[in-house]
Amino acid sequence: MDGIELMATAMHAMQGRVDVAAGNLANASTDGFRRHVAELRLRHGGVSLASHVASERGALRHTGRTLDVAVTGGSGGFLVRDAAGRVAVIGSASFQRTAKGEWLDPNGRVLLAERGTLRAPADATVDERGTVTDPSGGVVGRIRVQGDATVQSGFIEASNVDAVHEMVDILAAQRAFETAQKTMSAIDDVRAKAAGDVPRLRS
Predict the structure, then answer these.
(1) CB 100 within 8 A of CB 187
(2) Distance (Å, whole) CA 46 – CA 42
(3) pTM to 2 decimals?
(4) Does residue 69 contact residue 153 with C-beta atoms inside 8 Å?
């Protein structure tokens, strides 16, 4: 791989880094959003970009709404299942109750209890162990929690995006893009000059 090709891959990777940071900024106020972290890698084929979702949780925001549930402390989360039967672990959701008493997250996935789907009234209470009780004090189920996290009812997890950090990352990526662009132009100028000098040396 020559210098121009290397700089081209670097410019492409920097543009991707800007896109990742811009996506994070766009979701800075989206409850439950986890920021994406851009990772630059230098390989045989040049500079490449990979990204992963940050594991740290956002701060909990108090809503007082029973159907807003989040986890705190430890690791893991509670389990939800989609219509295709796929199960996912999430750390927070603002649930809506169906006519059957099921709790659905914003993506239409049902909240799971230790024995199947959770069905509970809208005015149920949830303790830190995930035990769900009706207004009379009767236990109607227990939220299925993976790991050692603690359940918090009446809270929702805010985005873990730091807007200032993302702005700095965008500026850094833009500068790196400009540097790669200037380097590419310099290499091209050197090649053009060398190509022009060859005929003069032969004459």
Answers:
(1) no
(2) 6
(3) 0.75
(4) yes
Q: Find out whether 160 and 27 touch, Cβ atoms under 8 Å.
A: no
In 3D, which of 8, 19, 95 has the Cα closest to residue 47? 8
Q: Which amino acid is at 8?
A: A
Q: Which residues pair with 39 in a beta bridge?
A: 50
The one-letter amino acid code at 193 reads: K
DSSP per-residue string spanning 61-108: EE---TTEEEEESSSEEEEEE-TT--EEEESEEE-EE-TTSBEE-TTS
Which two structure tokens, joined as six digits, stand for 99? 């006519």
151-167 residue pLDDT tens: 999 999 999 999 999 99
CA distance 95 to 20: 28
Helices and strands (DSSP H and E) totals, the chain: 2, 17
**Residue 174, Ramachandran bin (φ over 0: left; ψ between -120 and 50: alpha; else beta):** alpha
Distant-in-sequence, close-in-space partners of 57: CB < 8 Å, separation ≥ 6 = 72, 91, 157, 160
Q: Which of 123, 126, 90 is nearest to 108 (CA)?
A: 90
Tokens of 186: 């310099």
Q: Is residue 202 pLDDT above 60, yes or no?
A: no
The residue written with tokens 């965008």 in the block is 170
